[in-house]
Amino acid sequence: MKAFRPLALALATLFAAGAAQADITIGVVLPLTGPGNGLGIPVNNYVKLWPTSIAGEKLNVIVLDDASDPTKGVQNAKKLVTEDKVDLLVGSAVTPVAIAMAGVAAEAQTVQLMMSPANLPAGRDTWSFRLPQSNAVMAHALIEHMKKKGIKQIGFLGYTDAYGEGWLNDFKAESAKLGGPQIVAVERFARPDTSVTAQALKLVAANPPAILVVASGSGAAMPHKGLIERGYKGTIYQTHAAASRDLMRIGGKDVEGSFVVSGPAVAPEQLPDSHPSKKLALDFVQKYEKAYGAGSRNQFGAHGYDAVIVLEKVVPVALKAGKPGTQAFRTALRDAIENMGRTVLSQGVVTYSKDNHWGFTTETGVILKVVKGEWDVEN
Amino acid sequence: MDFSIASILTLDGVTNGAIYALLALATVLVFAITRVIFIAQGEFVAYGAITLAMLQNGNPVGSFWQRHGDLPGTVWLLLVVALIAVVVDGVRGSRRGLSSSQLLVDAAKTLAVPVLVFAVAWFAGPRGWPLWAQSLFTLAVVTPLGPLVYRLAYEPVADASVLVLLIVSVGVHFALTGLGLVFFGAEGFRNPSFWDERFQIGAMTVSGQAIIIFIASIALMAALFVFFELTLRGKALRATAVNRLGARLMGISTSGAGKLTLGLAAFMGALSGLLIGPTTTVFYDSGFLIGLKGFVAAIFGGLASYPAAVLGALFVGVLESFGSFWASAFKEVIVFTVIIPVLLWRSFLHGHDDEE
Q1: CA distances from A163 to A24, A296, B56 (A)
Q2: Under an 8 A CB cutoff, do A190 and B8 touch?
Q3: pTM
Q4: Which pLDDT tens digit goes with each residue over A18-51?
Q5: Using the beta-carbon criterion (under 8 Å), do A222 and B281 form an inter-chain contact?
Q6: Complex confidence, ipTM
């Protein structure tokens, strides 16, 4: 073993020297294992398809696994900023880890592109930008759709965690702003629950014309089925965390006719040609499915795609301020993102500014209807 | 709240309670015979439900084992765990100076069932057996995991204190959950219903699945009664439960009793998984909370009384159902708070006479 050490050292120095040239170093931290791996793996899939250079500078990408654990995420981020001197942090795809990493990004004054819609207190996200859509932006699309259908009251059935709570607050605020439907009944359930019979009974008794189910991935089907089994006949809405094929796989015929809000990248073929994201979303789907098989497209792979669009726009600007690897370059990178103006991504349109690191405008949300086990875009 | 709502809630609670009852019985059983507080009971529920789901529709995208044929992850898991057990046995046996033929016989005994299961899965996987046959096969896949878990985790420390065994249990729980993620992936599964019929009784709709849950739970309880009262094996287990040393002096193998008990526990867990699979989405880590409620129910019986555990389970189910109706955000709080007065009452009742 001892003989290996000098060799490893030599190799490490060699690589370090390689990185010290003008390459742009990007540190990616994603949940490749642990309960969040369903979100991290698709992002990583697209990271593998990233171009090798941007604006003539070679890209040097380091991917680390945070195991869906905030502590591990912070360790990884610290290692990336101190040892690898990354110019940019990407990740994580799960909210608690992304929030923990934001602290490191701020301390090291390095831009972080979050792959999760993480809420941070004011002033704590100076160096962090979100690529996924905020709940408020998605709620906007839902409320507009509900208003069009003449729905004045809705029931709420959501997780007893940060996702459910965040949606409830954002929906209430947006609805008040837009004059949308009122929430008349609020019921909660936990992810491992085996039945929502009691909650469904109460909601059906209140009998609002529509119910919003706030749950994610394959977990979104159980409450939906629970409502149908208790004889609910109204319209059921789902959030963008449910916009995956798992909803149909598990929900079967019970989810037919319900509405799901999502980013444009899930069903770009059906978007009207006037939709700003149509071309990019199609390009994403084509590239992703060529590498990972038909039907493999998803919300999170598209965030990986969008990261490249942002970088291609801001790196040339930042290069004027300094060489990669310097603080001047990192600061210029942040300023360039804040000043890049209206930018079309595969997941919608973003306009970041100094006070708004959420980016997405209200043109983003697309309402999908489940028809015969397929997505059907509502226009 | 009127009568019809109360009856619907009660039915829902009792249906869930019937499943908690199976798990509570398994917990009491394992504790009585091996003194192990078996926290990982719920994992077998998830294993059972997901194994059947994988037999039904193959592995999902994202599961590591998708690239390795269409076998359910549990089949691989069983094989891997059995191989580890063979290696451990081999090392210990050769240290003890067993002859190589004896070692080979031991290895063959350990591997026989997993290899058979693997072969059947290989044969049956792509053939799309009917649901009932796949369900029986699922039981055959998950049940042998129980004895292997006992062999690897508990047998080396079988005579340690209850506290040590409890700590081992926590480790086993985390190991099984982690393995579940590796072998099943992070996505959830839902199984097709065994019986799609619905019956209208007043305001209540009784689903065929609920009836199957009741029938299966009652049948299993009856089978356990017969096993413990009428068979020699069952009586040997009871003897072990009453007095380990005495049983050993009478020629009963306590290690064999432990393996048999964990086999029974795994069987009951997998059966609960099959029963609960069609009513909810099961994730690789869903078992823990379900098992925990079975455990709470077992506490009602002081980890000793089977009838009290069953009553406790029904109580937990109904409490949970009404709790989620009145205050859905505090449902779990309500269920787990109830255990505190029970624990207090139990400890006042018994004082300090039980040394451990």
Answers
A1: 34, 25, 31
A2: no
A3: 0.82
A4: 444 568 999 999 988 777 777 888 899 999 999 9
A5: yes
A6: 0.81
